[in-house]
Specification:
- The structure holds two protein chains of two kinds.
- Chain A is α/β, with parallel strands linked by helices.
- Helix content of chain A is 33%, strand content 17%.
- Chain A has eight helices and seven strands.
- A seven-stranded mixed beta sheet of chain A has the order 4-3-2-1-5-6-7.
- Chain A is globular.
- The model of chain A has no long low-confidence stretch (mean pLDDT 97).
- In chain B, strands 5-4-3-6-7 form a five-stranded parallel beta sheet, sandwiched between helices. A five-stranded parallel beta sheet of chain B has the order 17-16-15-18-19. A four-stranded parallel beta sheet of chain B has the order 11-10-9-12.
- By secondary structure, chain B is of the alpha/beta class.
- Chain B has 16 helices and 19 strands.
- In chain B, α6 packs parallel to α8 and α13 packs parallel to α16.
- In chain B, a hairpin with a 6-residue loop joins β1 and β2.
- The mean pLDDT of chain B is 97.
- The chains are: A alpha/beta, B alpha/beta.
- At the A-B interface, α4, α7 and α8 of A face α2, α3, α5, α10 and α11 of B.
Chain lengths: 195, 461
């Protein structure tokens, strides 16, 4: 996983709520068996509309997506995270996230930042007023800075540590292989197997 | 203080707990399909890892498979299915491929085989894994990184979600189904209402639901934002499980039932949140918008965006009406549809097909109507009862098992601007095909709609 400490970049205001993962990456893109090439499918249907914000050249190269509430609802497809990252996003800011999407993001090093809806709106307004303005997302200090605005955000210590170190969860769990084996020896005898 | 059902099942599965870290949770059953697994198997290979418990893992082909006989014509879909076959063979995982008697939608076959049992932890790279919570299991959808994690370790690091009770008061009126109930619940609490929670559905109306109905309710927990939904096991659960291929037998059955009976929320347990819903006031429910929370009673009209006080909801409603091609104030009963779809992990079980057949018996459909059994097992059961003859006589198409038009990864899709009444779970923009417009309905409303060509409750026929 890509480590994340602090990131400064320009923002794209996505003024929509309930941005489900079917919109982020439509199902037709899920047929791929590789992990790359998903940037082309990001918001594929919405990008057909020339007025869609990602088609505005002013936002080319932006790395922070600032969305309306309930971003990443619906399907568990991690392809949504891959598509955002491969397009160039490092951070998504919203007031609420779908649980599975948020979890998938932290496994991949895409930082989901939860901020109050009024702050999200201010960040969207600022990005609209001046697409060149920058936002700094500091995971070490757990704060977002944009112009005069400095806002703290919450993230649990463990996830923060894992992201800062760029650690692979599987490697961490395998350190506890003994505990897993001990647990397995005590499982209820009637539990089914697929054999 | 007592514990909730969710807390009991969670605690039973904690492998390791440490301050400031998520619990390491043991996973009893891992379900796999072709779409969210290929990159996970690649990850294992790159790291030189194996599958820790192939004997707790099962795979099926469902999302991409065509529902007409013959090979997969789309080469990309075919490659994905072939990749699953190679991975299952390489890592020693039981697979039910297309054409196999055990093949079907991943959330239909688990319960069908008796692999889904009370008190288990079950995961799958699919958000509708919440279905299995109907048995009193903790079951939730995961992403591909977590699929790889479970393959390698049979565990997941996770924080225990908060607990929410949804108390359904009174009985459902005649003609009101599990699907109407869950659509009404989602409309009430919203698509984000369940975020961060495991929901337990409780109350008289829930107790009276069949296992199929309970699965329909738990299936759509994720549409309210909750990763998992649960219903405490009872005699209905035990009767459903008894005699299934992977259910315990003899003395093991007795011991299991004894334990399963303890899997209920204690009387003095407290939930983090409680929501009440009056079952007696419910009527058939459908969606009008582009998220599952945008629903209303079938007897009402398309709402006006001005009705929503919250500016975000208002903007979402405006956009939804534009996408759906609907005008505020139009009675929902006047909405004409082009296609009716009965199937999916939400409503593709035998009881759903029986309900649709009862309405279509002796009638004729006026729309394109796809009846897609959730599994080959369901298909066989339906054919033994002669349901397929009822569907065919009515002019509906009787298909092979798969996810089909629920998400249109196979050839079953809507064309731009086409409108469906669908028993599936998501009415998102483009979900059933680019530009397609979806109204979520129960199997009963779907069948009645196929007869009239507009959204219709069976009572109106």
């Amino acid at each position: 996983m890509e480590a994340f400490t602090t990131h400064t970049g320009r923002a794209v205001p996505l003024r929509r709520s309930n941005v489900d993962t079917d919109q982020i990456i439509p199902a037709v893109w899920l047929k791929q068996v590789s992990r790359t090439g998903f940037e082309k499918g990001l918001f594929a249907a919405w990008r057909e509309d020339p007025s869609f914000v990602l088609n505005d050249p002013a936002y080319e190269g932006a790395t922070i997506l600032v969305s309306g509430p309930d971003f990443g609802t619906g399907s568990s497809r991690e392809h949504a995270v891959w598509a955002l990252q491969q397009y160039g996003f490092r951070v998504v800011i919203a007031s609420r996230f779908g649980d599975i999407f948020r979890n998938n993001s932290t496994k991949m090093g895409l930082l989901p930042v939860i901020l109050p809806e009024d702050v999200v709106k201010r960040l969207q307004d600022a990005a609209e007023a001046d697409p060149k303005s920058e936002i700094t997302v500091d995971l070490v200090e757990r704060q977002v800075c944009a112009g005069d605005l400095v806002v703290p955000f919450e993230i649990d210590d463990y996830t923060r540590w894992r992201l800062i170190e760029g650690l692979d969860d599987i490697g961490l769990t395998l350190r506890h292989a003994d505990a897993v084996e001990e647990y397995e020896n005590g499982r209820q005898p009637w539990l089914p197997t697929t054999v | 203080m007592g514990r909730t059902l969710a807390e009991k099942v969670w605690e039973q599965h904690v492998v390791r707990r440490a301050d400031g870290e998520p619990d390491l949770l043991y996973i009893d059953l891992h379900l796999i399909h072709e779409v969210t697994s290929p990159q996970a198997f690649d990850g294992l290979r790159m790291a030189g890892r194996t599958v820790r418990r192939p004997d707790l893992t099962i795979a099926t082909e469902d999302h991409n498979v065509p529902t007409v006989l013959g090979p997969i014509s789309d080469p990309v879909s075919r490659t994905q299915v072939e990749t699953l076959r190679k991975n299952a063979a390489e890592f020693g995982i039981r697979l039910h491929p297309m054409g196999d008697a055990g093949q079907g939608v991943v959330h239909i076959i688990g319960p069908q085989f008796g692999l889904t049992q009370p008190g288990m932890t079950i995961v799958c790279g699919d958000s509708h894994t919440s279905t299995h919570g109907a048995f009193g299991a903790i079951a939730f959808g995961i992403g591909t990184s977590e699929v790889e994690h479970v393959l390698a370790t049979q565990t997941l690091p996770a924080y225990r979600p908060k607990t929410m009770a949804i108390e359904v008061k009174g009985e459902l009126p005649v003609g009101v189904t599990a699907k109407d109930l869950i659509l009404a619940i989602i409309a009430k609490i919203g698509t984000g209402g369940g975020q961060g929670y495991i929901v337990e559905y409780r109350g008289e109306a829930v107790r009276k639901l069949s296992m199929e109905g309970r699965m329909t309710v738990c299936n759509m927990s994720i549409e309210a934002g909750a990763r998992a939904g649960m219903i405490a096991p009872d005699e209905t659960t035990f009767e459903y499980l008894r005699g299934r291929p992977h259910a315990p037998t003899g003395e093991a059955w007795d011991r299991a039932v004894e334990y399963w009976k303890t899997l209920r929320t204690d009387d003095d347990a407290e939930f983090d949140k409680v929501v009440e819903i009056d079952a007696t006031a419910l009527t058939p429910f459908v969606t009008w918008g582009t998220n599952p929370g945008q629903g209303a009673p079938l007897g009402s009209a398309v709402p006006s965006p001005e009705q929503f006080a919250d500016p975000v909801e208002r903007a979402a409603a405006e956009r939804a009406l534009e996408y759906m091609g609907l005008t505020a104030g139009t009675p929902l009963r006047d909405i004409q549809v082009d296609t009716v779809f009965v199937g999916s992990c939400t409503n593709g079980r035998i009881e759903d097909l029986r309900a649709a057949a009862e309405i279509l018996r002796g009638r004729t459909v006026v729309t394109r109507t796809l009846i897609v059994p959730g599994s080959m097992g369901v298909k066989k059961a339906a054919e033994e009862e002669g349901l397929h003859e009822v569907f065919k006589a009515a002019g509906a198409e009787w298909r092979e098992a798969g996810c089909s038009m629920c998400l249109g990864m196979n050839p079953d899709t809507l064309k731009p601007g086409e409108r469906s009444a669908s028993t599936s779970n998501r009415n998102f923009e483009g979900r059933q095909g680019k530009g397609g417009r979806t109204h979520l309905v129960s199997p009963q409303v779907a069948a009645a709609t196929a007869v009239t060509g507009r959204l219709t409750a069976p009572a109106e026929l």
